[in-house]
Write a structure and sequence with these properties.
Blueprint (H helix, E strand, L loop, with lengths): L1 H20 L9 E10 L2 E4 L3 H5 L8 E4 L4 E4 L4 E10 L2 E8 L6 E11 L4 E9 L4 E9 L14
Length: about 160
């Protein structure tokens, strides 16, 4: 019985340290993104005119990425692709499979974070190959947590 307690305590401590200091190599690119530039088979898809390039922050075009289904959806072109991310030779590679010929195969994945201040930053993602180039971004603003105002009668 004494040995069982010692083994269980050691197992608990090891599991606690493992979960506390484990770092995953997985890249999370899930969410809705704003396109900056989309080139498929050396043909510029977005922005396809001067007006689009001027008003690209106002445009409703988006790229949706879902980790649940491992898919990328380009709303403007109505194109979807399934993806898997792996690491080769210290480079991140994303494998895409789609009905669109330009989005099949292995692509290089670059993720860059630009900090504006301590509460806001921009994440830029580039998926590129020889003839296809997807560049999109997301602006994030983290607001400080504000405690709820105490009300009478609530604990």
């Amino acid at each position: 019985m004494k040995y069982l307690k010692i083994i269980s305590v050691i197992t608990f401590i090891v599991a606690l340290f493992y979960l506390a200091f484990y770092k995953t190599d997985k890249i999370n690119i899930e969410g809705n993104w704003d396109p900056e530039e989309i080139v498929l088979n050396n043909k510029k898809v977005f922005p396809n005119s001067i007006i689009d390039s001027i008003f690209k922050d106002i445009s409703r075009e988006q790229i949706s990425i879902s980790d649940w289904t491992d898919s990328i959806y380009l709303h403007q072109e109505k194109i979807s692709a399934h993806f898997s991310i792996r690491k080769e030779n210290n480079k991140k590679i994303i494998s895409l499979s789609s009905n669109e010929r330009a989005l099949n195969g292995d692509f290089e994945l670059k993720v860059d974070t630009i900090y504006f201040d301590d509460k806001s930053y921009q994440i830029k993602v580039e998926i590129l190959s020889e003839s296809t180039y997807l560049k999109f971004y997301k602006n994030l603003h983290i607001l400080p947590w504000k405690p709820q105002i105490p009300r009478k009668g609530l604990p």
